Amino acid sequence: AGTHTLAPASALALATDYKVVCSAGIRGVVGNLGTAEEVAVSFHTYGPLAFEGLEPGTVDIVPDEELRLSLAFSNPLAPPYQLTFDPPVPGLPQRCFDLGDDPAGLSCAGSELEARTSYTLTIGKGQRDVFGQELGQDKVVTFRTSDADPTVSLESGYFVAELTRPVIPVWTRNVSKLQVGVIAITPANFHQLSPRLDWWATEPVKLDGTQLVRREFELAVPADKNQWRQQALGAAELAGAGAVPGPGMYYVELGAPEVKEHPFEDGGRTKVLVNFTDIGVVSKLSTTRGLVW
To answer: 110-123 in b/e burial notation, b at 16+ Cβ within 10 A?
Structure first.
């Protein structure tokens, strides 16, 4: 078997379907047998660079931490990407990445889009594709966002917090209340919780057959339409009314009935284990050294 390169006698036309056909009976340099049947290969040439569309559309885009804007083009783009947003969007266009060949275009992180805001995206006329073609003229696209859906941001896992500033990093948007289940953990009962811990499961941990006691309460969140806010949830709230918060560990399950996304849908909860300590550690670091006190 051998490989042969074919070159057209003249430049191929843009955006055109072609077919290369090898007729039956073509003989090689050795022997007297030719090809048994005709072989054909079809291909399509690339066309002029053009913008083709924006997903998820241009009207009432719901701002979300996972939102991505997909910009479709006729051909793959070559960096740098000549995109400007008005008003500016933090991280863009630096957080735009190539989609590949099918479909051609860019995927841009939309997590920093503000709610109820009209944006203008301008793609510069000097934007090139991988074939060296320029867009030729500025392309202007307008789109707008809607109200944000109720959202809670809290990563499951283990946290250490200082009693002097006892805050679990809970961020909320368009949420009016949080459901909190808390279990005080001690060296004497941790072994009862440990085998039941499943960070990936959304249902509350089952306490059957243990001496663990879960305290449930509801935490009101002040209204602040479409704005992220850090919700105060610390040792005082977890210890309960009348209790003196001190160093200690708590297992916390946080629910949000207004949130319809994982892990909160259908009454699900996100889970953290937090250890409050009165040992304060502060560090100051440079590229070559650090200071801890």
So the answer is: beebebeeebebeb
Spatial neighbors of 105 by CB under 8 A, at least 6 apart, are 52, 70, 71, 72, 73, 76, 77, 98, 99
Which two structure tokens, joined as six digits, stand for 263?
Answer: 């892990």
pLDDT band at residue 293 under the 50/70/90 scheme: low
Which residues, 6+ apart, have CB-to-CB distance to 286 below 8 Å? none
Tokens of 222: 């002040």
The answer for residues whose C-beta is within 8 angstroms of residue 290's C-beta and 6 or more apart is: 283, 284
Across the range 166-195, mean pLDDT stands at: 92
- pLDDT exceeds 90 at position 4: no
| Burial tier of 130 (Cβ tally within 10 Å: 0-12, 13-18, 19+) | middle
Confidence class for position 99, pLDDT limits 50, 70, 90: confident
| Mean pLDDT, residues 148-177 taken together | 87
Question: Distance (Å, rounded) from C-alpha 176 to C-alpha 155?
Answer: 20
Distance CA 257, CA 266 (A): 8
DSSP class of residue 262 equals T
Reduced to 3 states, what is the DSSP secondary structure of residue 210? coil
Query: Could you give the CA distance from residue 238 to residue 276 in angstroms, rounded to a whole number?
Result: 11
* Token pair recorded at residue 127: 């934007």
Take residue 71 and report the two structure tokens written for it. Answer: 């910009």
Q: Please provide the average confidence, as pLDDT, over all residues in the chain.
A: 90
Range 159-189 burial, b when 16+ CB lie within 10 A, else e: bebbbeebebebebbbbeebbbbbbbbeeee
